[in-house]
Amino acid sequence: MSAASLLPITSAAIANKYCVEARGGEEVSDYIIKAENIKKYFGGVKALDGVNLEIKKGEIHCLAGENGCGKSTIINIISGFYTLDSGTIEIDGTKYEKMNPKQAIANGIQVIYQDLSLFPNLTVMENLAINMEVAASRKFVSKARMRKIAEAAVAKIGFKIDLDETVENLTVGMRQMIAISRALLNDAKLIIMDEPTTAITKREVKSLFKIIKQLQAQGIAVLFVSHKLDEVFEIAERFTIFRSGKNVASGNTSELDQNKFTYYMTGREIISSHYEYTRENAQNVLEVKNLSLKNGFKDVSFSLKQGEIVGITGLLGSGRTELAETLFGYHAADSGEIFIEGKKVEIRSIKQGIENGIGYLPSDRVTEGLFLSQPIVDNISIEKWHDYANCLGKIDRTQIEKMTEHWAKELSIALHNIEDPVGTLSGGNQQKCVLAKWLALDLKVLILNGPTVGVDIGAKFDIYELVKRLAKHGLTVIIISDDLPEVLTNCNRVMVMQSGRLVETLSTQGLDESRLAELAN
Amino acid sequence: MNLQKTVKSTEFYVALIILLLCMAIQMKSGQFFTGNNLVDVVRAFSVPAMFCIGEMFVIITGGVDVSFPAIASLSMFFVCSELEEVASNPLFFFLVAMLIGLAVGLLNGVIIARFRFPALIVTLGTSSICFGIMQGVFKSREYPLCEPLKELGEMKLFSATNPVSGLTSNMPVAVILMIVLVFLGWFILNRTMLGRGIYAIGGDVKAAQRSGFNVFGILLFIYAFSGCMAGLIGVLRSTMLLAVHPNNLEGMEMTVIAACVLGGVRMTGGKGSVLGALLGMALLTIVDNSLILLGISTIWQKVFTGAIIIIGTAASAMQTKRNERKLAIKMNEGGK
Amino acid sequence: MNKKKYLAVALGLIFCVGLAGCGGDSKSQKPDSAKTSVKKVVETTDVATKGEKKDWKIAVVVKDSSNGWFARMEQGVKQYAGDTGINAYQKGPASTDAAQQVQVIQDVINQGINALCVVPVDPAACDPVLKEARDKGIIVITHEGSSCKNVDYDLEAFNNAGYGAFIMDKLQESMGGKGVYTTMVAHLTNASQNEWANGAVAEQQAKYSGLQLLDNPKRVESENNSEKAYQVAKEVMKSHSEVKGFVGTSSMDTPGIARAINELGLKGKAFVVGTGMPNECRSLIKDGSLSYITLWDPAEAGYAMCVMARQILEGKKITDGADLGLKSYSKLLQSKDNPTLFMGAGWIAINKDNVDNYNF
């Protein structure tokens, strides 16, 4: 009930919250779905503590909240995969105490999961048609029938695609289109999209939004789960924010601003400031001349001063990741020169990269940056094992534990025990572990590739603050990111890459986001 | 579209290597494209090819089955040694063997699908149990083949005689069964929803469940199918040998898995075609049966076979890599 | 947790069925061996049966009592008992298992025997229990166990080179003294089979100039698989039409090659001689695709071990050239490297005339 004070818009709806008398199914409701006072426990753990979620017909509604706030739990309840412990769900005026996935689908509720639930090894046509075919308990495959279904699905949102292409050969954006059109096949009235923008590029986000608007025009409601404020502003009309299994706010997006949004999500005041670079006459730390990598990038030249934070932006496939990986030594450049503190160096292997004081935080921390099943202490200290090992190779555990605890404190990593597997931490804390690993090494240059992808807003600001603090102490940082506001507030310069070439280097001072977006795309 | 896709496929490259190899053998010996040699190759191909069908089903779902030689040996030895006096209809022998295979296959399937144990370990275990029962309980040994099966084994579809050397080779009846089984495999994989389910599980188990596929049922089916077919093939093999050799099939699992992988069946699941697996097996069979025709001395045969396997795999692996690069370029261009 | 329990029960059941099967089977073996009447399976001279005393007790322990090969050996042992009136008998584990065999040996030692003849499954595993027997004053003789250390004598049916030469003699006879031949072994790494094949080639080069060894391949592998032997034989004859003869060494080679000869239509034109089992090769021998199978007669070997045991018990010394009163063991050859190792000339050749005399 404490949440009610934050709900000025829906107070009328809340007035009859505990009205139990069943309304007739034929009565027309304004809401496609009304979930009231939903509680859900897992074991003894409260996942949802009496939350409300109301979505009007044909509206675009944003559900936001940090990891573990109960977003996915409510989605799974609405779609019938979880049974609720108490509360009611009302779909289009009909109350349900319990619901199973079949009923949810029959009522026009479709979920597009973050992993999209597509079969990468099957063709577009099969992916589009297979759910219908299984639901109809077909025994045999009919290509003609499947093609018909697929064509009908594609026609719903009108995009062009080769139906015979295998899905794994498509970009994530394309896959999303397929998942959406598949969801539309079942006469959807509400489409739930679970963080649809995390894995796609800016450009793809644009076309996704176009399609969401299109759906809205057809009278389909969309529940859009995201924690990116700019997206929420751009697309949603109303929003609901959860924190720790409770409603904290809901209302019209027009009433929301950056600070309020962050506050609702994290429960704390966070003010982000632009990074001011003041050491214009510091020495060059990293200088690159005419660096080229086949199938990667060509003739890239730039120089970075001590303490600078430089952003690199550009589309996926523009060569930005390859450039970072080459500086780190993962690829050996085909031509060009690299200078560290004015001295020409050879970086042809990761070992050489590290020796020259370069650290790299990969975009996919799960597969490239961490050993998920190994303890936190080992993950943080791995690059230092050599220094803490005696002549027989035995590692001094107390030393590395001390070191781990130091960094955990320094980076405020929220952990129970340094012997826990690193996989038990949240995304933001995992990212901090990767950072700690590199910071322990006295680096000269730290390259961060998408450092805040899939990271909660609170942890995100922690990371920004940390990076800025490190830069003030003289570390040179490169941030590769799609997130333009992130680049603009945290970097003093930004480089734009396009098709393997460095096309522009700009100061972020007074740079407009829309102008940067134009350059990057 | 079709020609372009064909040229990109693994099957195309394996077929190309087979063609080149055949030409080389023909040029060296002049014996490859003779009726009797082709019959010999098909005969040698038939049994492993049948195993390939069951195995590729399993591999496509992301599992692996190494128990089929043991299942085949056990059911073969059981029916040939214990039922000799019970029946005279060869069909009866096949039926009982298939039932034994089915039982072991179901055991595999239940353990793997229900308890989600790793398929390699489970089938390794059942394989050991089968060989153990065969050796311990039934006292396996070389054993003469009983009359009804022997008669079946001596039947032939046709004979091919080389007009020059006068050498004759007989096409065994088993080849018909191979054709039936290959067609059945192709039909299930490509024309039934069960087949789509097999691919779907290999692609993404979670998504398959969300789509409404009966994942447990499908996994149970493929292991049961593999076991059942192994029982059948075991007896068939003994009719071709005209004797019961209980250890004859030991080690064949590696050849069959290698053939599947060579033919583009992906070990992690989701990819593979009947044609590919058969081409992979054909390549291995031809290499195995032509080393003497090629004049390669016995000492070097293993080196040569190994080299062909690596070349075959490399050709398709390189093709996959090239496709990946193309995807990156496509994304690049799409961004402009 | 429950799932795992069910699984454990299921696995346990399988295990029990397996054990029950083993137990049941070993019981059913006994009446079989009891039924076998004392037949004359081995030809002997007086040397074999004469002696001073009759109250010796000799036990023969074989690898596997259910195996046809050792059933034949038991006939030899029984005949010896019948011929001499000495208490000689054969025992063996229900399956070829080194540990079980040690158990059986232990049992017979406790039965108060004077001599122990063993065909070891695993010579190394047997050695300790053989030492125990010798410590109790029991004479120990092994067969196919030249690497055992705690023995008085080891009796082998033949020396490897001699057996190879014997195969060549028969092949030469079948081929009519001329033509090209090649050799087959299970694996190029198999020591004894390669010695046999080398022996055959040496014999041909010394005696039969009409025969010629194929240049390439000189030796092929069957991988101990008769289907592979069949395929390889076919391939050899396709690519080298001049090949008219095969030396087969493994018992899988010979029937495989014979099937190839039969199918290619080369019966009477191409020949194979080599190791083989009578039951398995019977039909191939009878229809003419297989000229001779060669092997040593286990009945004779069993009989010979008993004779040797009695001679030692009665104080005779076994020397080079000793006679055991059996056709194949009338002039023993003492090994130069190992003075306790004696070899007979125990090979036999089986063709369509005598194949029905052998049932194993």
Percent helix range of chain C: 40-55%
Largest interface: B-C, 48 and 46 residues
Tell how many strands the DSSP assignment of chain B holds: 4
**Low-confidence parts of chain C:** 20-36
Strand count, sense and barrel status of the largest sheet of chain B are:
2 strands, antiparallel
Quick one: how many beta strands of chain C?
Answer: 14
**Number of helical elements of chain B:** 14
Which sequence of strands runs across the widest sheet of chain C? 2-1-3-4-5-13-12
Percent of residues in beta strands of chain B: under 5%
How large is the share of residues in beta strands of chain C? 15-25%
The global form of chain C is elongated
What is the mean pLDDT of chain C? 85
Which H/E pattern describes the elements of chain C? HHEHEHEHEEHEHEEHEHEHEHEEE
Helix share bin of chain B: over 70%
Can you give the mean pLDDT of chain B? Answer: 88
Distance between the termini of chain B: 25 Å
What does this structure look like?
The complex is a heterotrimer of chains A (521), B (336) and C (360). With 521 residues, chain A is an alpha/beta fold. Helix content of chain A is 34%, strand content 24%. Residues 329-336 of chain B have low confidence and may be disordered. In chain B, helix 3 runs parallel beside helix 8 (174-191), helix 3 (35-60) crosses helix 13 and helix 5 runs antiparallel to helix 11 (215-241). Chain B has a domain at 36-250 and 264-272. Chain B contains 14 helices and four strands. Chain C is of the alpha/beta class and 360 residues long. Chain C has two domains: 42-151 and 298-346, Rossmann fold, CATH 3.40.50; 160-295, Response regulator (Rossmann fold, 3-Layer(aba) Sandwich), CATH 3.40.50. Chain C has eleven helices and 14 strands. Chain C has helices spanning 2-35, 46-49, 68-84, 98-109, 123-135, 160-175, 191-207, 226-239, 253-264, 278-286, 298-313, and strands at 57-61, 87-91, 115-118, 139-143, 153-156, 179-185, 211-213, 219-221, 243-248, 271-275, 292-296, 333-334, 341-343, 347-350. The longest helix of chain C is centred in the first third of the chain and has 34 residues, at 2-35. Chain C starts with a helix and ends in a 10-residue tail after the last strand. Mean pLDDT of chain C is 85; it is low at 20-36. The chains are: A alpha/beta (521), B mainly alpha (336), C alpha/beta (360). Chains in contact: A-B, B-C. Chains B and C meet through helix 3, helix 5, helix 6, strand 1 and strand 3 of B and helix 1, strand 8, helix 8, helix 9 and helix 10 of C.
